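Quick one, tokens below:
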């Protein structure tokens, strides 16, 4: 009989994983410790914007019209333990307040709350991004707490999904990585990930430490790639080069590749920034900090982008921010997401506001989350409303909707036709032809 699946934690990762498992035909029980979330998910709704996820949930959540009924949500640990053969732990590991290290308290609490109820053979599978060495520690903790002892085992199976593409990345992963101590656990995970999910996806079997490191090193590599091209943008600005052309040209080399070479105001979100910091902190604990000192540079290049954007804005306003009207297009850390965690766009908007500018933000999905963090900024219901009377317009999150804006029409609304493209995503020719001064990071000013 197919194993029954539970998913602990229902954020981006957990909610998507639970729905995807139900889509594959498994019976799934999701758990969260927040009653409002459980209630919302039970109605087939999600507390965030993620394309396609609500539809996928509604196809499977029990009790909804026309659903398969394969997916339910609960607050009850005992129910989860009794139901599941395979328990996926998908809770988050945020950065600790005031420290680089990641906060493992949610993972620890989840594993312990579950373990005390595990009285029959089962596999607990960690998916959260954790410091290397966590799986060893958690396996020992489960063996110690579970009434089933070592029959309640652990495996590590990092997740590589991107926000905005969570459903597709989960159903069609680039690779599946499993860290196991026992071949029987590999067999269980092969069954869980049997086609269509694993069709064409390499299945990499390894030890705990390597599985944990695959995730942190993949994210560090991606962050490094972005900071590399942003460093080139700094040099291009100093030398009069064009970083967009440069990225295109180096990207033709397959060994470099075209992806993740978009220069701009840098990376943000709930993963890359905190993952590189946690990785440095963990390497320090292991006495390997020298190996990762370059990540400090990756981080500081990235943070410098935000300050640079603020300086460019000041320049565009003749050195004075006080009382000037700045329209900011974008608040989420990337398009197709309402997530504003460590968002470069919101950070820039906030800095400008704190320096006296009158900032009005418009994001197609992120306004509400942004308002919670920065209630003192102005928020508009559309791009046209945001730019009304603006002395300068900043394009900070590259939503498709912004690429479709008509510069001529928008030009009628603004005080001055001045746009700074923080994402190198708009068409300079179209904006300049419509009478705008267009400036982008790492590109020549005309
Ligand atoms: C990332 C990883 O891609 C994913 O594999 C992992 O599971 C979680 O962390 P995510 O945080 O959703 O995913 O976003 P991603 O698409 O990687 O973008 C991260 C940030 O980098 C965004 O702020 C984005 O705007 C920025 N970015 C990305 C650039 O500035 N330039 C680029 O070329 C690419």
């Amino acid at each position: 009989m197919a194993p029954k699946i539970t998913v602990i934690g229902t954020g981006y990762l957990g909610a998507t994983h639970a729905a995807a498992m139900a889509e594959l035909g498994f019976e799934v029980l999701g758990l969260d410790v927040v009653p409002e979330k459980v209630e919302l998910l039970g109605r087939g709704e999600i507390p965030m914007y993620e394309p396609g996820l609500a539809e996928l949930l509604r196809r499977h959540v029990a009790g909804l019209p026309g659903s398969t009924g394969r997916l339910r949500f609960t607050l009850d640990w005992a129910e989860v333990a009794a139901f599941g053969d395979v328990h996926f732990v998908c809770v988050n590991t945020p950065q600790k307040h005031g420290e680089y290290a990641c906060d493992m308290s949610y993972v620890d609490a989840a594993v312990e709350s579950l373990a005390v109820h595990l009285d029959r053979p089962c596999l607990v599978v960690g998916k959260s991004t954790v410091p290397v060495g966590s799986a060893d520690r958690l396996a020992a903790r489960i063996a110690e707490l579970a009434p089933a002892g070592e029959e309640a085992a652990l495996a590590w199976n990092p997740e590589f999904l991107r926000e905005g593409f969570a459903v597709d990345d989960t159903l069609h992963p680039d690779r599946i990585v499993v860290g196991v101590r026992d071949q029987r656990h590999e067999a269980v995970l092969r069954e869980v990930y049997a086609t269509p999910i694993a069709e064409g996806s390499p299945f990499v079997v390894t030890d705990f430490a390597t599985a944990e490191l695959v995730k942190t090193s993949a994210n560090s590599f991606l962050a490094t790639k972005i900071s590399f091209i942003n460093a080139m943008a700094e040099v291009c600005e100093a030398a009069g080069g064009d970083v967009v052309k440069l990225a295109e040209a180096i990207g033709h080399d397959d060994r470099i590749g075209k992806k993740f070479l978009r220069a701009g105001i840098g990376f943000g979100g709930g993963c890359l920034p905190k993952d590189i910091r946690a990785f440095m902190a963990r390497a320090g604990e292991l006495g390997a900090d020298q190996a990762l000192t370059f990540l400090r540079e990756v981080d500081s290049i990235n943070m410098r982008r935000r300050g640079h954007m603020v300086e460019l804005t000041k320049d565009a306003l003749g050195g004075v921010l006080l009382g000037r009207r700045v329209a900011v297009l974008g608040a989420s850390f990337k398009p197709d997401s309402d997530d504003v965690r460590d968002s470069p766009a919101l950070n820039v908007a906030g800095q400008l506001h704190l320096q006296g500018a009158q900032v009005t933000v418009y994001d197609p999905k992120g306004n509400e989350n942004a308002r919670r963090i920065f209630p003192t900024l102005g928020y508009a219901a559309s791009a046209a409303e945001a730019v009304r009377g603006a002395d300068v317009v900043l394009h900070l999150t590259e939503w498709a909707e912004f690429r479709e804006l008509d510069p001529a029409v928008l030009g009628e609304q603004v005080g001055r036709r001045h746009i700074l493209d923080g994402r190198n995503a708009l068409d300079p020719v179209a904006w300049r032809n419509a009478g705008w001064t267009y400036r982008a990071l790492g590109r020549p000013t005309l």
